[in-house]
# Entry
Amino acid sequence: MSYVVRDVVVVLALAAAAARLDSWLAWPVYWAAQGTMFWALFVLGHDCGHGSFSNNTKLNSVVGHILHSSILVPYNGWRISHRTHHQNHGHVENDESWHPLPEKLYRSLDSSTRKLRFALPFPMLAYPFYLWSRSPGKSGSHFHPSSDLFQPNEKKDILTSTACWLAMAGLLAGLTIVMGPLQMLKLYGVPYWIFVMWLDFVTYLHHHGHNDKLPWYRGKAWSYLRGGLTTLDRDYGWLNNIHHDIGTHVVHHLFPQIPHYHLVEATEAAKPVLGKYYREPDKSGPFPFHLFGALAQSLKRDHYVSDTGDILYYQTDPKIAGDAQTSG
Ligand SMILES: [Zn+2]
# Structure
């Protein structure tokens, strides 16, 4: 709970300080700091979704709803689709987060959809659109109780979260009327999009961008352990602590019930057991600039996987790789 209180106090203090200063020198600093803090709130809500925040299910739900609604995430909708992601990590078809497209589906996409998925900065802005309508080839929405993301008995949970999301949207609309659209854009809109970029950046790089090509699976080749071992740890430098050690992703995927404040320790304990299956992350400087290269490289080369076979590696569309070369 102390992490939640700390983060909420920091978010409110940053907003109050920025509104008071109201200077064009201070706003960019505020946007970077607040967008990063929104991401920290998201990670704590993510713990609630895994049930690792508290043993009390109700408390997980209440705190998760407050944290995630405040940054316009439908708590139960995403919690359930994230559970699907964990239960199927590394599976080409059944995974739910940044999974590869089979070649036939990839070829069926129009050129603008391909651009949105592979040309920076568009993939880093994907999250709200993913919440609304998922990924290519999949139907349903995180807001709709009858979406095929959810079981019939989860309808009430989805309605609750969508209602909380609407209440937050209503609050933001009210504040926009009171404070004016420009002030709200500066206080909430820009940090929101920086949070979205953090989320897309971090979640993409936990499953992509290693120097060695990592496998994806389907059919009998897939297992929970094999899928979990395709995830990657990352070092975010000074931000590791602010981001609640989200970079310790391998052990989080193998044991999602471990709360974030034990993940560093759990990773150290798991390393000798995992041996060569653990890939040590590249060391970061104070800020993780080294990861931009990994991101750009992966978007340039990781486009689709074969429609057949059970152990698969990304293949490259020369057209997209060529475009990236020209514009880079
Ligand atoms: Zn998770």
